[in-house]
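About this split. The held-out portion is used to measure sequence recovery: a designer receives only the structure tokens and must propose an amino acid at every position. Recovery is the fraction of positions where the proposal matches the reference. Here is one held-out target exactly as it appears in the evaluation file.
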């Protein structure tokens, strides 16, 4: 039985030595940049581990996702870029990013290359945008913690809820959006046992 793929953790050490920058194929992102940025070495180490964990998750999910999705991490904030074949893969990449230990926010800039009908795509985009605006204006919700994607009028929510009550409220707002046929939530709460303290904080404590 073939186990899950793992990106060697030795790459992390390489990024903090004088051996030159380490570049992971397929990402186009140099991992060692702390000297040129305001981040501390510890922050950079935490971001590097988040990046490697997310890349492992993408690779274990799909070799295609690993090749197509580029990731950048700054102080726990993840930015996803690239072009994926389907909107389902876009949702999956966002979900995996939110589930990665230490991530505090996700900005999904992924493009979809599938040739779906223009009308269906516009209808889905209208639903997503209307819900995003509604959440932004809702004082009961921290909208920055949520990502919204609609596929065939099904709303997919990913992100991090401050409480179960907030999550229930967001799901209700999504279900009430005109045109929505169902809502699928991939959202975790901040106290979810699958989440742990950010790695940078863990290293700082040692």
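Reference sequence for scoring:
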């Amino acid at each position: 039985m073939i186990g899950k793929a793992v990106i060697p953790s030795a790459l992390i050490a390489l990024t903090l030595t004088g051996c030159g920058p380490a570049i992971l194929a397929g990402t186009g992102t140099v991992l060692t940049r702390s000297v040129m940025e305001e981040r501390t070495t510890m922050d950079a180490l935490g971001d590097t581990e988040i990046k490697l964990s997310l890349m492992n998750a993408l690779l274990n999910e799909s070799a295609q996702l690993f090749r197509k999705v580029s990731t950048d991490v700054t102080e726990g904030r993840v930015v996803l870029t690239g072009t994926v074949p389907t909107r389902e893969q876009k949702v999956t990449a966002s979900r995996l990013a939110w589930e990665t230990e230490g991530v505090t926010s996700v900005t999904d800039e992924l493009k979809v290359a599938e040739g779906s009908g223009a009308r269906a795509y516009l209808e889905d985009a209208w639903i997503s945008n209307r819900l995003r605006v509604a959440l932004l204006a809702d004082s009961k919700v921290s909208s920055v913690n949520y990502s919204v994607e609609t596929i065939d009028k099904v709303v997919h929510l990913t992100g991090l809820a401050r409480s179960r009550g907030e999550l229930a409220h967001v799901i209700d707002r999504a279900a009430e959006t005109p045109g929505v046929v169902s809502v699928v939530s991939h959202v975790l709460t901040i106290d979810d046992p699958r989440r742990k303290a950010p790695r940078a904080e863990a290293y700082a404590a040692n």
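Annotator remark: The chain has seven helices and eight strands.
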